[in-house]
Fold this protein.
Amino acid sequence: MPYETIATAKEGPLGCITLSRPDAFNALNTKMVTELIGALGEFEKDDEVRCVVIAGSERAFSAGADIKEMSDMTAVQMTMTGHFFPLWDKVGRYPKPVVGALSGFVLGGGLELAMSCDVLVASETTQLGQPEIDIGVMPGGGGTQRLTRAVGKYKAMEMILTGKRIGAEEAKSLGLVSRVVPKEAFLDEAKKIGREISAKSPVAVRLAKMAVNKSFEMGLSDGLDFERELFYLLFASEDKAEGMKAFMEKRRPEFKGK
């Protein structure tokens, strides 16, 4: 379907979403959030799509929420509409793996969107930050929670309370992004990772993603029990049978997602 603020494409097993508000550094507004949720929903229903890649431009993944749109909103309006929060919930709970391709500005709500993804590839020009404090508010799309889990309390406090940005290499050293590549390669690298993931068993990928995400919500003992249950469950899948048979026959497996 046609979109105004994003572009979508299917590239084999990849569902590709590109943020496209270039004049606003891909700032998130209601229209973009609605379209992103719609595109994600379409790719979720498409069994041919095994992984989703979300990207911006070289100049900006997203510079955050559209302040002009938010400036006159009241607390009641924010509460009743939910504003952008359904987007972060959609990405954070998405059943298929999501790879974020980052470059340029990744700020505020843009960083929160990125941190909702599963794997992050950053160009060497990437600048990441939560500068909401500079306009009298604070992160509200998961920034205080996901950033702290990614980089630890003290670095998260510094970034959130000062609005300070960090570069791609520092983000990588802190564990905030998966890898850093030259600017001209960030999108290709993200798609490469997406294709690698797509070649694996969709059933195993989905359950492995679920187990990793649960590790942030459970204690170690409960997490180990949850992991074990999912591990046993995979032994009922056709993909498990195909994967092990292919290994013994020294050939590539042909996973069907069953």
Summary: The longest strand covers residues 6-11. The chain is about 45% helix and 15% strand. Residues 30-45 form the longest helix (16 residues).
